[in-house]
Amino acid sequence: MEVKANGVASNGGINSMVIVHEKSSVLPARPSENKYCDLITFDLPYVTFHYNQKVILYPSPSKGFASMVEALKKSLSEALAYFYPLAGRLCLEDGILKVDCNDAGVDFIQASWSTMAVGDLAGPDSSPMMKDIVPFNDTLNLDGFFLPMVAVQATELKDGVALGIAFNHLILDGYSTWHFMSSWTELCRGSKTISIPPSHDRALVRDTKVRLNITPPTSRGSATSGTHTEKPQLRGKIFHFSKEMIDKIKRRANKGREAKPFSSFQSLGAHLWQAVIRARKLAPEEITVFTLFIDCRKRVEPPAPKGYFGNLIQGIYGATAVGYLLSNDLPFAANMLQQVIDSHGDKAINEQNEEWEKNPKLYGFSDAGMNCVTVGSSPRFEVYQNDFGWGKPVRVTNGCNNKFDGMVYLYPGKDEAGSVDVDIALLPQTMDLLECDAEFLMVN
């Protein structure tokens, strides 16, 4: 199941009291079914993104931390046998980027932070502390030539457990991330099989071979995007919107509307867009862009199979002048979002793919658009159902990777169906104003 490395003890960050006790490699329980997994047009633009990071906080397991770690490793080994590209490494053949499904395994780190409580990490302002409990900070997907596709850190806290997981974004999007997580938890709870076996045949949705002009890194951790710029200091915060608040926003957006009603997402997205742009204090003539990474699984023809494993998302954009956005009521912004979402069917998806294939461009954060608000993740993901056998999560959130000014991650609220947690990163001065915006906070 695993190959153990020598135990090590070291501090996580400069001010952290995280102690790493052991690092090991977890291998798939069975050999991979295929030698290679081709990466396609839906995957390739994310070469220069960072590993996606998820943090899941749990109560303390009654059976003890050591026993829990062994259960996690055993079930992870079983899960990797189904999701075998995650146990491989990137390779390049004649300019074609793919995954060598060589069963090299994934990293597993066992750590402790005896002075930190779950409640402290679950708070709305806990973002800076995430660096210490999730692996592969500031690590590019391109490093997957040497680094594993997945790394897990299980950290024992004063009153619970933090599970920090880093995923190479070239391999999977949000939908596939939670498909893997639900399968892993299912196996850890004792199931002999998983409910939804993954489909690794990416040719079902796109079989075009795209050659990339990239240079593989020369050693572990040496990858560079080629577009390095100094990252601005950001503040992250989670805002909770109750179902009552969401319903109120939706009623405002749809007041007097006779056409197709705006969805909860379109209404909330418009609410966020206007609030962030208000807080940025931009000139009326400046352009602002709302960017959404939209799931295309049901939009391609024929639709992708339920278990399709990989990236099947595309960025779509709505843009307008700041003055138009803020001088109009909520329905103006909601209508822009509805139009761009409804128009993105199979034809638009193919056109976007074909355009990219003619001139492949690797995405950077600046490609989200000017003065952007960019939404990833989805409150439809059932993240709080991921119970390994010792209780449902207390909080599910992101690490620090792939965050920039205006990046928003949406999660379902934990205790109330229909509520939404909005995890947003902004420049400090913008966040200061957003926190005081009574209209945004729905206190009027």
UniProtKB/TrEMBL annotation:
<dbReference type="InterPro" id="IPR051283">
    <property type="entry name" value="Sec_Metabolite_Acyltrans"/>
</dbReference>
<comment type="similarity">
    <text>Belongs to the plant acyltransferase family.</text>
</comment>
<dbReference type="InterPro" id="IPR023213">
    <property type="entry name" value="CAT-like_dom_sf"/>
</dbReference>
<dbReference type="Pfam" id="PF02458">
    <property type="entry name" value="Transferase"/>
</dbReference>
<keyword id="KW-0808">Transferase</keyword>
<keyword id="KW-0012">Acyltransferase</keyword>
<protein>
    <submittedName>
        <fullName>Uncharacterized protein</fullName>
    </submittedName>
</protein>
<dbReference type="GO" id="GO:0016746">
    <property type="term" value="F:acyltransferase activity"/>
</dbReference>
